[in-house]
Write a structure and sequence with these properties.
Shape: globular
Helix content: 40-55%
Strand content: 15-25%
Distance between the termini: 9 Å
Number of strands: 6
Length: 189
């Protein structure tokens, strides 16, 4: 399966490469574009500065350009936090999308969003400072109305980007649970 894996606001850090390696070891073709042009951040504040300096529209344009040569294969879109938001936008706009794997992040939906039983799996910390319960409940209902087949997994006690061992949010147990469930999801597509 071809997977487009998009990094978080921290940029293309070692944790993203490790995730791609984990997916490759499970037999998937993984494409990991660098939407920040080689820049990475060690702090959330710096990551948000990088994101804001590039701009959300430009980041989406870069993600679209990365997906374009691969989209005829029926991609699974995946991403971490900001990358998850971008992946969601790409998947909802690609009628050939085979699935959507969101790690730590979602995006708002347009009222006219529509997909045909798109398999979606979301993994988030519980609680998550960027993905409140109210937001996630509303997001889930909007995704279902759009036609997505959605599963949400909340990981109690984990920090927002709990799959990155170089960040204070890291939670080994939640990371292993996430990857176990996510790999099963990908195998089902």
């Amino acid at each position: 399966m071809d997977i487009l894996l998009l990094h978080s606001a921290y940029g293309l850090r070692p944790a993203v490469h490790s995730a791609a390696d984990r997916l490759r070891a499970a037999g998937h073709q993984v494409h990991v574009p660098d939407l920040y042009g080689g820049q990475t951040a060690d702090t959330l504040e710096r990551g948000l500065e990088l994101r804001d300096g590039i701009g959300n529209e430009e980041l989406l344009t870069r993600a679209i350009k990365a997906a374009a040569p691969l989209s005829d294969r029926g991609l699974v879109y995946a991403g971490f936090s900001l990358g998850g938001a971008l992946a969601q936008n790409l998947a909802l706009g690609d009628e050939k999308a085979r699935g959507l794997l969101l790690l730590h992040g979602t995006s708002d939906l347009k009222d006219d969003a529509s997909v045909d039983d798109l398999p979606v799996q979301l993994h988030v910390a519980d609680p998550d400072p960027f993905e409140s319960h109210d937001w996630l409940n509303a997001w889930y209902l909007r995704m279902r109305r759009a036609g997505a087949d959605v599963e949400v997994f909340r990981h109690p006690g984990a920090g927002h980007l709990y799959t990155d061992p170089e960040l204070p949010d890291w939670d080994e147990r939640a990371t292993e649970e996430t990857w176990s469930v996510a790999l099963g999801f990908l195998d089902s597509l």
